[in-house]
TrEMBL record:
EC number: 2.1.1.107
Organism from which the protein derives: Paenibacillus glycanilyticus
InterPro entries reported for this sequence: 4pyrrol_Mease, 4pyrrol_Methylase_sf, 4pyrrole_Mease_sub1, 4pyrrole_Mease_sub2, CobA/CysG_C, Siro_Cobalamin_biosynth, Uropor_MeTrfase_CS
Keyword annotations of the record: Methyltransferase, Porphyrin biosynthesis, S-adenosyl-L-methionine, Transferase
NCBIfam families: cobA_cysG_Cterm, PRK06136.1
Domain Tetrapyrrole methylase: residue ranges: 8-219
Protein name (database record): uroporphyrinogen-III C-methyltransferase
Pfam families given in the database record: TP_methylase
PANTHER family reported for this sequence: S-ADENOSYL-L-METHIONINE-DEPENDENT UROPORPHYRINOGEN III METHYLTRANSFERASE, CHLOROPLASTIC, SIROHEME SYNTHASE-RELATED
Length: 258
């Protein structure tokens, strides 16, 4: 049983970067919070929805540079809630897609704290759509998988690229830019064709969005020469070719208007 005086924690998805892609429900939850604990990939424009007297706590994590380790975040969520606070844990994308939202919800449940998940648009969907790449497309792809490009802990099993190479039509790879050469090598070793189209979407849905396209044969060299950095999403599959068709159609439509 949770204590009667305890507050409540909302684990909220902020969407993929464009502040207009946050949900109405998420925006309302931010507006009712006493405490907003927000991550590195959250667009800070969204913090304007918070109450003027709300406490804003940055707890973002970059590679080898964590403002707060996960254990400290968990402890803070519990402590704030036990003080009777309404807490919003604001995460980029969706909290249940590589967002560790499940871990935080389990921690809260263990301490008898009430919690609620507010979904967000995850990067695979938001960034791909913003780059004019459908994750599924009739005749090209009937399935897609969201995959992590790295592992947070050394004791975890590696990603089974050998299985993914042939069981899924489209791969949406998160956190994989620094491992792009290795991912490419694993997919090729597993029988994926070197001609398979690949796109890297840097800072998807934002005004700084950049899209680099190539194939498994050359994408690692292109990304390196163009100095692609995180946050970036990697899309592997025939659907990348649809982008060319959509951009061509867009240019033709613009020409007709002119």
């Amino acid at each position: 049983m949770r204590a009667a005086a305890a507050g409540k924690v909302y684990i909220v998805g902020a969407g993929p970067g464009d502040p207009e892609l946050i949900t109405v429900k998420a925006m309302r939850r931010i507006g009712m919070a006493d405490i907003v604990m927000y991550d590195r990939l959250v667009n800070e424009e969204l913090l304007a929805y918070a109450q003027p007297d709300a406490e804003l706590v940055y707890c973002g994590k970059a590679p080898n540079a964590h403002a707060m380790p996960q254990e400290a975040i968990n402890a803070a969520l519990v402590a704030y809630a036990k003080q009777g606070k309404t807490v919003v844990r604001l995460k980029g994308g969706d909290p249940f897609v590589f967002g560790r939202g499940g871990e935080e919800a389990l921690e809260l449940a263990e301490h008898g704290i009430e919690w609620e998940i507010v979904p967000g648009i995850t990067s695979a969907i938001g960034a791909a759509a913003s780059a004019a790449i459908p994750l599924t497309h009739r005749g090209r792809a009937a399935s897609f998988a969201c995959v992590t490009g790295n592992r947070c802990h050394g004791d975890q099993e590696p990603v089974r690229w050998d299985l993914l190479a042939h069981s899924v039509d489209t791969l949406a790879i998160y956190m994989g830019v620094s491992q792009l050469a290795n991912i490419r090598e694993e997919l090729l070793k597993s029988g994926k064709a070197a001609s398979t189209p690949v796109a890297v979407i840097e800072r998807g849905t934002t005004s700084q969005q950049r899209v680099i396209t190539g194939t498994l044969a050359d994408i690692h060299k292109l990304a390196s020469s163009l100095k692609v950095t995180n946050p970036a999403l990697i899309i592997v599959g025939e659907v990348v070719k649809v982008r060319e068709q959509l951009l061509l159609a867009e240019r033709q439509a613009e020409a007709w208007v002119m």
